[in-house]
């Protein structure tokens, strides 16, 4: 997956079957699905792959326990199926995670025990392990840092855990292996139209300034929280359908939750589920659900959100995490659909597909777990709309790139200069890593795991990247400054 090679392919192809705007989970999944069906497929991402929400999840591949509470059986069944397939197709990045629901009230053990047994039954042969009722002693043996006052026991269940940004790169590489062209740092600046119908896009490389006219039989808008921006390119009178909601996560050291078992708090004061999950030798705490008006690729956690997470998780632990214990914090924006469009082609599960009068197709909503199914749905619609050759989706059992290879370390703190250089070389040559932030935030996960360490490593990373990419000292300084400007918002103070 070499960027210059991708650009050469862009310039040599006169017309594409499918053009995808957006390089997050949904867009990349769509590119893989389309390309694997033999369709000439190209994808443009305005920043880096998974730069936005897709790299800032709770790191869970889950069936949706909270959806079960809501009675959305079809969504849970679908998510459980997709979870099982992801574990088979991306074993290098997705694994079985054991959770415990601590019980402090007499009714909690039978209530959650029955609910999680139903969850097991719905998973069927794709289940990851049976839920089990535990005594107080058994619960503490798994999570010794739980608050013991009033603790009566717990319920164990299993779900999936993954590395979101790394999975995005794996999907991108698999799409390229199947013939797709995927390009980062090339925003769509306008839509090509002929007789009021969208027939392609205008794009411009933000790294070089070069622009292209790209013709395509169908254009798919998969831009998440930026959905309305693209829809307004098509129709300036478009009424917004996205109501963004912010979710934050705090990262702390393992001392707060030693061992391998995660905690699920089934109900917070605002009715949400809260997690404390082991991830790359740290603990991820989250999440929140805060409506926001401003859309940003780097949203910043609000004070009240930070306090909310610390307060709620502190109720369950013997040692309450303090603000000073937070190694990094990050926020992502959920593209919640606030209304049903009259142009809805498919309103299924928790995602929405619409077709504009111009023919442009938009897909939004959903979650990481069901990205593959979302892609299948939208490609089916695109094929029908554009009159493309009908071929069945083949991604359900497709192994993703890297499944049989060593995984790039998430943390780089202890790497030698030689080891760091090798990883950077691979990230540039095979993963289209273009900036220091790409490397420290998404090719590795250092920024999300420990922001101070990431800032300390930025100069060394910039120096190595400059040699590999033939950049000068000015570029090094700009990269360090740009990264530090982003990284400071990951610090708790």
List the defining traits of the structure above.
493 residues, FAD/NAD(P)-binding domain, D-Amino Acid Oxidase, Chain A, domain 2, 10-stranded mixed beta sheet, 19 strands, globular
Structure description:
The protein has 15 helices and 19 strands. It is globular, with a radius of gyration of 22 Å. β8 and β9 form a beta hairpin. About 2% of the residues have low confidence. α2 runs parallel beside α7, α2 packs across α10 and α14 packs antiparallel against α15. The strands form two sheets. Strands 3, 4, 5, 6, 11, 12, 13, 14, 15 and 16 form a ten-stranded mixed beta sheet that branches. It folds into three domains: 185 residues, FAD/NAD(P)-binding domain; 197 residues, 2-Layer Sandwich (D-Amino Acid Oxidase, Chain A, domain 2), CATH 3.30.9; 74 residues, no CATH class. 36% of the residues lie in helices and 24% in strands.
* Portion in helices: 25-40%
Largest sheet: 10 strands, mixed
- Output the CATH homologous superfamily of the largest domain: D-Amino Acid Oxidase, subunit A, domain 2
Q: Count of DSSP helices?
A: 15
Shape: globular
What average pLDDT do the residues reach?
Answer: 94
Q: Note the beta-strand portion.
A: 15-25%
What is the count of structural domains? 3
Separation of termini? Answer: 38 Å
Gyration radius, to the nearest Å? 22 Å
CATH architecture label name of the largest domain: 2-Layer Sandwich
Short description:
With 493 residues, the chain is of the alpha+beta class.
Question: How would you summarize the topology of this molecule?
Answer:
Layout: H1 3-12, E1 16-21, H2 25-36, E2 41-44, E3 60-61, H3 65-69, H4 73-89, E4 94-103, H5 108-123, E5 132-135, H6 136-142, E6 153-162, H7 164-177, E7 181-183, E8 188-194, E9 197-204, E10 211-221, H8 227-234, E11 242-253, E12 262-265, E13 274-279, E14 282-286, E15 290-291, H9 303-314, E16 328-337, E17 344-348, E18 351-355, E19 361-365, H10 371-386, H11 417-431, H12 436-443, H13 446-449, H14 451-469, H15 473-487
Parallel strand pairs: 1-2, 1-10, 2-7, 4-12, 10-19
Antiparallel strand pairs: 3-6, 4-6, 5-6, 8-9, 9-10, 11-14, 11-15, 11-16, 12-13, 13-14, 17-18, 18-19
Helix pairs in contact: 2-7, 2-10, 11-14, 12-14, 14-15
